[in-house]
Design a protein that fits this description.
By secondary structure, the chain is mostly helical. It has a domain at about 1-125. It has helices at about 1-30, 35-65, 70-95, 95-120, 130-155, 165-195, 205-225, 230-255, 265-290, 295-335, 355-375, 380-410. The protein is globular, with a radius of gyration of 21 Å. About 50% of the residues are buried. Protoporphyrin IX containing FE binds next to helix 2, helix 4, helix 5 and helix 6.
Amino acid sequence: MPLSFLGASALGLIATGVAWLVVAGRAARDVTADPVVAAVHLGVLATLAMGLLGALHQFVPVITGRPLRSTVAGYASCALWVAASWMLPFGIGLSAPVVTGLGGASAGIAVLVVSWNLWPALRVRGKGPAVTAMRWSMAGALITTYLGVAFVGDRQASWFALSARADLAMGVLGVFTWLGTAYVGVASKLWPMFMLAHLESRARSVRASVWLVPVGALVLAAGLLAALPALAAGGALVLAAGLAAHLVALGAHVRRRRRARDLHLVFVLTSAASLLGGVALALVAAVTGSAHPRAGRDLVAAAMALFGGWLLLALVGHAHKVVPFIAWSVLRARGVVSNPRGQALGFADLYSARWALASYVSTTGGVAALGLGLAIASPPVMRLAGILLAFTGVVVGANLGRGPGRVAHAAPAATSAASGTPESAPTR
Ligand code: HEM
């Protein structure tokens, strides 16, 4: 079931790339135009939220030691989120209020189903900061989505005058309290495993990040919504401290790692660089925005793109570890124990390293081009970003999706070995 979320996320990335290709000219003139809002939501909802919701369905039971309430409800939330995350942008982009309304309604129902399904596991006590992060992330999902539902209602019935600050508040809540906090929590469990680095999961930097990131983003968003600059500045400082703690934890894992440098590490470090780039652009926008409002708005959009890049690079990098891990377990359970060369089946047999490297280059190029294209309002650079992001979706989906099938097809002789005692998972 988590693989269904991840597969849908790859499709979402293709759609996001195509959308930026189409809206690039419009975005250079006005980054708040409806077709651009549509492209933004294909990115944040159909790609990032889709992938991170899949990660939560995979890791909440593993980390808490408690099952989901229902696998069927997991599939239902995947279907509802697909409906929401495609209908909402299409409705906004094509000015079709009924479709936008249906998208908003699906999103509202989907987050309720996800919360109902995960809550018994998330109530567990004594499992450390990762669970705290997941609880915060769930709260962030509910708050952002119901703010979104209110925005959708406003589009249908003009409930209130929506300011640019309110729009930005939604971006902050969605990117940091919801999606960013999910990544901060899941990473604290995955980095030790994937880097072979022992860092106490209750280390101070990890404990600080799972509180400061979501709380700082909430306060910043409240300051933006209530037009209280001092509150917003205080929230921004707390959020920055939380992100710094997250990077300190990353640095500690990297220093203590016993695994040689691999593509996962390069993805994670590039993702962190994108986060730092976003912070730098947000600072420049805050300092220069009042003197140059147009440039300031473009810089804020570029910063948001780099924050999205932080999560996209992390998602794609971790997918190259997590998907083969899940597929390996499924194949072994079906009796496939060797690769096509007759050796013991390893994770590296389940995807092509060359295509994984290509997807690293295209994700990094796509994120950098989107940030740059928005910052300098350049349609050709944004179009390049669209092409690279769509290419990434195709390559990652095909590389991770087809590998297990190829191995299963090529290794029928090994089937009988399935009845043997299960071996531990390979390290490569
Ligand atoms: C990770 C989650 C989300 C993020 C990061 C996000 C981000 C944003 C941003 C940055 C804008 C302003 C775009 C601009 O003016 O250029 C926006 C607008 C909007 N969002 Fe979201 N959003 C998220 C989730 C949602 C959800 C779940 C819904 C619906 C249920 C939604 C509905 C809307 C609507 C309708 C607008 C347009 C508001 C208007 O009329 O100006 N968003 N969002």
